[in-house]
Amino acid sequence: MADMNWDLTDYFPAFNGPEMIAFKEAIKTDLSYLHKKASGLAVLDNNNQDDWESVFVQYEDVKMRFGHISSYIGCLTSVDARNEDYAKEESALDRLGAEASKLSVELLRGLKDATDDAFDAFVGREALNDAAYALGRMRRDAQFTMDAAREGLAADLGVDGINAWGRLYDTVSGKLEFDMVYPDGKTARLPMSQRRSLMEKPDRSVRQAAFEKGNEAWAGVADVTAAALNAIAGTRLTLNGHRGVNHFLDVACFQAAISQKTLDAMFEAIHSEIELGRRILRLKADVMGRDKIAWYDLGAPLPLADDDPLDWETGKALVHSSFARAYPELGDFVQRVYDKDWVEWEPRAGKRPGAFCTGSKHIKQSRIFMTYNNTIGDVRTLAHEAGHAFHSYILREKRPFATRYPMTLAESASTFGEMILTEGILENPDVTDKQKALTLDMEVGHGAIYLMDIPVRFEFEKAFYQARQKGELSVSDIKNLMVETQQRIFGDVLEEGGEDPYFWASKLHFYITGVTFYNYPYTFGFLLSRGLFALFQKEGADFLPRYEDFLRLTGSDTCENVAKQSIGQDLEKPDFWVQAIRGMADPLAQLEEILPRILNHNG
Asked: Phi, psi (5° rounding) for residue 191?
């Protein structure tokens, strides 16, 4: 583990050392004991509440410990996708996870047919204080389960089925390389994890080369990724049918803790305000001297200066200073993250692409994974993931049952962190007009991603699942579906032939097996964050205790109720979402106002 930036020793002193082995064995033993005990209990009633309480409290603890070791192994495999020992342990954890799933099946059985009176008495017990919402979700989930034997079989088959397809994708993407050809003729074989930063370079020919050469590599594994995508979706649809789930989006809404009405309201607002996102992209095209944009232009910065790299120390300082000025506690927190070496950031072969924040409730710590390639986008990624880590920090004293927040609310904390970064840079008296323009470009550019790119992912995946109900889709079918979706959402701002037909293959989010529709929560969180941030700007530091209350509530109620209690908004009506989207017009207008001065000066 010498090649890693982050310090993982608080998880375990060593991989497969005696501490880790004993920890895993204890989980196995406890799962076996709890499964035997739970399977011997009748459905929850007024006479067996003590026994069920014991099972649920111990289940909560063993799940926390399983999350601890899963986070640790996830950290290792993400940094070194080529390490066979890590991959083997990841597979072993999937089998252990199947045992945990079997236990959860028994818990759902216990709740499924419990009377309202018995359930209300149960969640009112002192040992289950602050667990009522989580247990209520489990009870609702229980209404859509098969019998225990079939759910147990599904859990077992999942190890070598749906989860194996997800692991295969992780391995393929982690090892995938492409032959980059630079404008000066220099060539380099690069890991796919470095492609994103190249597609954020000012030089369009660099972006185009990274895009085209990267897609050549993805084309080479398209049969594998298409098979994985078909298998993951097919498994979900088959299980939905056996579990009595009417529509695949019902699962997505349940996992996101929102109603279908809220989801519809958000997308109604996005489509009604679609021209704002297109305006942002038209401005980008105009600055580049073009009429339209290509997919590889989405992350392009303004052509205002030479490509001055932001080294790691500079990027860290930029995030810390922005946080500290606006929100001192957040600034102190991110400094502790740096001091304790909780960030894995260096580019190296074998790293998986993407970025994430993981953590352990067992040790009350987080870890941030990313590949820092010296761009302003990487700085924003650091702020984003630090927002996630701060969310976990705020929840650190809550019981595990009350910390299971949905992605829809998780992304609020991360994008709130991004907006504090942007505001901090803009308020810095040392910031030049050029730097302000670059920062505003980053702000509105990410707005375009959330309002255009993410809806493409959602609409594509929805159409893919609809088509998959009739049978498997070929590589050509999936490519055509992706291109058609991009053309429909982007409209006349996307140049002909500028689509990305392999976006479905290169986007990790489509292959995450634990969560379905891993896309729209980003836009949900972004727009909800804009509502939170608008209150912060209006009320100043007085708002921050309410913001922290918002974060603490995220595992204790639905998105709609959390929003009503913290910011007094109705998420089931398009009005909230429309106003949040229109808020993007201000930074866009600022950018439009400042650009002519900067570009004329440069000229």
From this structure: -70, 150
Is the residue at 528 inside a domain? no
Q: Dihedrals φ, ψ of 496, to 5°? A: -60, 130
Query: Does residue 178 form part of some domain?
Result: no
Per the structure, the complete domain to which residue 144 belongs is given by 18-160
Residue 5, in any domain of the structure: no
Counting the structural domains of the chain, the total is 1
The answer for residues whose C-beta is within 8 angstroms of residue 564's C-beta and 6 or more apart is 570
In a domain, 134, yes or no: yes
Tokens of 326: 């606006």
Helix H or strand E encompassing 333 = helix 328-339
Q: Which long-range contacts (CB under 8 A, 24 or more apart) does 305-309 make?
A: 305/434, 305/602, 307/201, 307/202, 307/203, 309/374, 309/375
CA distance 225 to 236: 17
List, run by run, the mean pLDDT of 10-residue segments along the chain (603 residues). Answer: 86 97 97 96 97 98 97 96 92 90 92 95 96 95 86 91 96 96 95 92 94 97 98 97 94 94 97 96 92 94 69 92 95 98 94 92 98 86 96 96 91 89 78 76 88 97 98 98 98 96 96 93 91 86 92 95 89 93 91 86 56
3-state percent breakdown (helix, strand, coil) of the chain, nearest 5: 70, 5, 25
CB contact set of 81 (below 8 Å; sequence gap of 6+):
87, 170, 171, 173, 174, 175, 350, 351, 352
CB 84 within 8 A of CB 154: no
Whose CA is closest to 533, among 584, 480, 491?
584
Phi, psi of 77 (to 5 degrees): -70, -30
For residue 56, the domain's CATH number is 1.20.140.70
